[in-house]
Amino acid sequence: MSKQKFYVVWKGKQPGIYHNWNDCKTQVDGFPAAAYKAFPTMMEAEIAFNEHFAKHIYKKDKEEPKVKAGVGTPIHDSIVVDAAWNSVQKDMEYQGILYKTNTRIFHQGPFANGTNNIGEFLAIVHALGYCKKHNLTVIPIYSDSRNAIAWVKAKKCKTNLEVSAKTKHIHDLIARAEHWLANNNYKNKILKWETSSWGENPADFGRK
Predict the structure, then answer these.
(1) Among 116, 120, 137, 119, residue whose Cα is nearest residue 128
(2) Is the Cβ–Cβ distance between 96 and 81 less than 8 Å?
(3) CA of 177: how far to CAs of 48, 67, 122, in Å?
(4) CA 145 to chain centre
(5) Alpha-carbon distance 73 to 78, whole Å?
(6) pTM, to two decimals
(7) In this structure, are strands 190-192 and 141-143 parallel, antiparallel, or unpaired?
């Protein structure tokens, strides 16, 4: 049985602290630039609710990322992406963070009947499109998903998600992303976020 979590909603339809994900989801679904995060105790949630959301959602470790032999540290001027998948609702969302300023530059979803790997794939392609639109041809993109990185480099989302009426919207998103990859060139490096050395991906949704 999973432990109780407490969900802080800083920016949503009704900001507050919620005792389950479904109540939290009701407050943030469809709300532009919603800000929310899960905490293991009510005390931590209450403290966080009275602080600015950026301290908890977009924060980096207080110390600089550790240097590990052969790994180094993250490139400061970069974009970091991540996706989240809810095992109960079966919905997926993804976002991108500008690493040097801890600023969220895009967020999409939730999308019903998606998967985490698909979200990771879409997030990287979205970041590539963002870079091209804003002429950021050198800035690298970090993801902690080896599968998604490989799919983007192959220009093909190799998902096993069934094709059905329920998943058509997800496959439409995949097709659009694959079409972008097939018709656009990019110079941005796509790199692996080394969680074991640097800590949690700063674009993580904080629901673990």
Answers:
(1) 137
(2) yes
(3) 36, 34, 7
(4) 11
(5) 12
(6) 0.69
(7) parallel
Pull the structure tokens for residue 36: 């929310």
Is 130:112 a contact under the CB 8 Å cutoff?
no
- pLDDT tens figures, 53-106: 777 775 444 344 555 545 688 999 999 999 988 766 778 999 999 998 888 899
Residue 16's Cβ-side half-sphere holds a number of Cα atoms within 13 Å equal to: 11
Reference 110, options 79, 89, 81, 88; nearest CA is 89
User: Which residues are bridge partners to 38 per DSSP?
Assistant: 7
Closest to 116 (Cα-Cα) out of 86, 140, 95:
86
Sorted by sequence, the CB contacts under 8 Å of residue 14 that are 6+ apart come out as 27
- For residue 198, which of 74, 57, 62 has the smallest C-alpha distance? 74
- Give the span between the Cα atoms of 191 and 134, in whole angstroms: 20
**135: left (phi > 0), else alpha (psi -120 to 50), else beta?**
left
The position carrying tokens 């009426």 is 165
Cα gap 66→80, rounded to integer Å: 17
